[in-house]
Amino acid sequence: METITDLIRDVPIPKMVKIRQNFDRTHIPETELAGVVTRELDREEIGGKILPGQKIAITCGSRGITHYAVMARAMVDFVKSKGAEPYIVASMGSHGGATAEGQLQILRDYGITEEAMGCPVKSSMETVEIGLSAVRKQPVRIDKYASEADGILLFNRVKPHTSFRGRYESGLMKMMAIGLGKQHGAENIHHQSPGIMHELVEEYGRAVMENCPILGGIAIVENAYDETYLVKGLSPEEIITEEPKLRDLSYETIAHLLFDECDVLVVDKIGKNFSGDGMDPNISGRFVQPQYCSGGIDAEKVVILDLSDETHGNAQGIGLAEVTTRRLFNKMKLEMTYPTGVTNTFLHLMKIPMIMDNDREALQLALCCCPDAEDQTNMKMIRIPNTAHIDVIEISEGMLPLAKANPNIEILSEPYELAFDENGNLF
């Protein structure tokens, strides 16, 4: 890499300023969550359907929901209070390397274990056909363990999807269509035209509700700080009518960068625990299918420095950046990354960008390759830890006037040089 190092050696890295982006902080305290979940389930339309002795499956997916285990345990305890027998089913499409053990490991990472939940936690990639979709007459399948239940309670976060727009995006409908569908369901939907994905999610989800004992579910909306903004119990009928309203609410509460554009966006870590795409395009602006989705910041170049531990080597989303590091490349596990690409067909998500030996060179490369920069001597750069935590971030000195003009931004420091270690890395 000596040739590249020599080419970029003298590229200056701008001084940075620490800022805080302020969003609505309304949330439900952790100590109250179990009670709220219980109250939402304890309605005749949902909990009233649970009878003593019934086996009740509770879905848990791969998304990093804040206080995930607390709320899952509350759902388990509620089912037990009705005299029924709960168990948790890993419901996450092809994640976890499309293996049963890989999906169990994801749940363990979130604290969802048999010991912590007080009930069995089951994982299988085996599915059973439960019927045909109403419009396209396609076979719809769900998890084998879920199919054996007397009743199914859904549990998921409602938020904007990263690849499509529609009445139902990430939420309970998608949990039925893709989460419970496992690798087969995810592949079935993703292998059709991306332009109809929103239709397929609803079509498959409705088929599950019509052919399986769906009791309802718990829908979570989070605020910009990944805190629980709202917990809502939905009956099957309410999933159809109310989930689109929760989706609209999530667009209002989701975090976003308070800048329209920059030259270089630096993301410290990506991972499946932050977003299905490794980094949330609603923040990064790098959409899998930009012809169907838009939003986020407009960055000419994106640099990704590392993978989260929780992603277990799954580097999906790396292909949305132009530059990365050897540290990330060495952590990337193809056996964890590629199955998701085969399932969702978005092979460009797995493409490997230019690899630099350290963080300093990665930044220098990106900075010197921005021909559209407004001022080459005063580059606009933003650095974020990941797309799930963007309250306290860093911006380059050249962006200070924009920050000072925004009442929702606090300036937390004077300009400073980035502190690279002896190996040229930031951490």
Any idea of the CATH topology of the largest domain?
Rossmann fold
Q: What is the overall silhouette?
A: globular
Secondary-structure arrangement, i.e. CATH architecture of the largest domain: 3-Layer(aba) Sandwich
* CATH class category label of the largest domain: Alpha Beta
> Rounded to an integer, what's the Rg over CA atoms?
22 Å
Q: In what range is the share of β-strand residues?
A: 15-25%
What is the helix fraction of residues, given as a range? 25-40%
- Number of domains as seen in the coordinates: 2
Q: Unreliable runs, pLDDT <50, ≥5 residues?
A: none
Q: Report the sheet with the most strands, covering strand number, pairing sense and barrel closure.
A: 8 strands, mixed
Could you tell me the number of beta strands?
A: 16
CATH superfamily of the largest domain: LarA, N-terminal domain
Average pLDDT for all residues: 94
Read across the widest sheet, the strand sequence of neighbours is 13-12-11-10-14-15-1-16
Distance between the termini: 21 Å
User: How many DSSP helices?
Assistant: 15
Helix/strand-derived category reads alpha/beta
